[in-house]
Amino acid sequence: MIRGIHHTAISTENLERSLRFYRDLLGFEERSSYSWEVGTEGLDRITGLKDSSGRLVMLKAGKASLELFQYTTPKPKTGEPMRPVCDHGITHICLKVTDIYAEYERLKAAGVPFHCPPQEFEGGLRVTYGRDPDGNVVELMEV
Fold first, then answer.
1. What is the pLDDT of residues 31-68, one digit of tens each?
2. One fold for both 8-73 and 93-142?
3. Where does residue 115 fall: left (phi above 0), alpha (psi -120 to 50 degrees), or beta otherwise?
């Protein structure tokens, strides 16, 4: 029986930069971190990689967890920083906020690129999409 989603994971080329974004700027709490070296067979089996090594950090905000990975080996391919959200794959992560206009202005002032200012929809729903340092879409939503 599936009981829910435990976490979402993002692979990044620069873990410290991603931590500055998700932990320091967005306020996620760092819960744990782990590094592994080439030869860690269990992780190679789970990931389907050969001779993997790297570091991960688990973050938490509210009931949501986010896992950041930086692989040292094998050498990752560079992602397309502004991959359109219509392309196949994970399109975005969504963060619930209480004052979307204040968060939008705060993050914009910190250099976060946004597609547009918050948009308003029926029922008081307010939404906007921004990008993390790797180009992944981060949605802000106020209900």
1. 999 999 999 999 899 899 999 999 999 999 999 999 99
2. yes
3. alpha
What Å distances lie between residue 133 and 2, 96, 125, 142, CA to CA?
A: 32, 20, 26, 23
Percentage of residues in the chain having pLDDT higher than 70: 100
* Alpha carbon distance 46, 127 (integer Å): 36
Q: What is the CATH number of domain 93-142?
A: 3.10.180.10
The domain spans of the chain are: 8-73, 93-142
pTM of the model: 0.89
With 0-12 CB in 10 A as exposed, 13-18 as middle and 19+ as buried, what is 49?
middle
Is domain 8-73 annotated with CATH 3.40.50.300?
Answer: no
